[in-house]
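Task: sequence design from structure.
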C-alpha cells in the first residue's frame, strides 16, 4: 500500500472543489449518526482536514495511516495482519482507502475492521461511471434540483486513478453487487448509502455491525 506523501501531491491540488463536496458529505453522514458516535478512528488522513473538523464538533478522534510522515496516532497498514482494540471506537471511517489494496486484501481488512468497530463503519469508494449531472438553482426554491444519470463502466477494467487504485466499483469484475456481498460477508449491513449527483465518483456507505 503506497504512502500518499510519496506521490508528491500538493495540498492545493488535493483540496479540489470535488474533494470539498466529498468532505461535506463525510461530515454530514457522520453527524447523522447522532449521539451513538463519539469515539472515531479515521483511517487515511493526508492533511487531517476531516480530523480537525470533527474535533471542532466535539468528537474524540484517533488517526491511523501507513505514512509515518503524516504523524498519525497509529501507524496502520491495512495490507498486513494489523490489530486494533475491539469495541473502543463507535465508528471507524475510511474514505477512498480500500481501493488502494488488491480486492482480496480489502475484503480481509474489511472483516477485521468490522470486528474492531463498536457500531459503524463509514466508507466511500470510487464509483467508475459514465455520467451526466445537471444542477438547477433558482431564487424561488431554497434547495437545488438535480438530474443525474450514471452508467457503470462494466465494459472497462481501467480505474480513473489507474496508477493508484487496484479496482473501482462499477468496473468489469467489480459491480456494486459484489461490494455489497463483501459487506454482508464481513458482518455488516448497509444502514445508508449515498451518491452526490454533483460528485458521483465518491459512493458512500454507512455500514452497521450486525
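Answer:
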Amino acid at each position: 500500500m503506497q504512502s500518499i506523501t510519496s506521490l508528491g501531491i500538493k495540498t492545493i491540488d488535493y483540496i479540489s472543489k470535488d474533494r470539498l463536496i466529498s468532505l461535506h458529505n463525510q461530515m454530514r453522514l457522520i453527524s447523522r449518526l447522532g449521539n451513538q458516535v463519539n469515539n472515531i478512528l479515521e483511517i487515511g488522513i493526508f492533511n487531517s482536514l476531516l480530523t480537525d473538523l470533527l474535533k471542532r464538533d466535539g468528537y474524540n478522534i484517533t488517526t491511523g495511516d501507513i505514512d509515518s510522515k503524516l504523524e498519525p496516532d497509529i501507524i496502520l497498514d491495512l495490507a498486513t495482519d494489523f490489530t486494533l482494540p475491539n469495541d473502543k471506537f463507535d465508528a471507524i471511517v475510511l474514505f477512498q482507502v480500500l481501493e488502494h489494496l488488491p480486492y482480496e486484501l480489502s475484503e480481509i481488512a474489511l472483516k477485521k475492521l468490522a470486528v474492531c468497530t463498536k457500531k459503524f463503519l463509514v466508507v466511500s469508494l470510487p464509483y467508475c461511471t459514465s455520467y451526466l449531472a445537471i444542477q438547477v438553482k433558482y431564487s424561488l426554491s431554497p434547495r437545488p434540483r438535480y438530474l443525474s444519470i450514471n452508467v457503470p463502466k462494466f465494459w472497462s477494467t481501467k480505474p480513473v486513478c489507474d496508477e493508484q487504485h487496484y479496482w473501482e466499483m462499477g468496473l468489469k469484475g467489480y459491480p456494486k453487487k459484489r461490494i455489497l456481498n463483501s459487506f454482508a460477508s464481513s458482518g455488516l449491513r448497509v444502514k445508508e448509502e449515498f451518491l452526490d449527483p454533483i460528485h458521483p465518483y465518491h459512493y458512500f456507505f454507512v455500514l452497521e455491525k450486525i
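Strands lie at 39-43, 60-65, 74-75, 89-95, 117-126, 129-136, 145-152, 188-195, 202-209.
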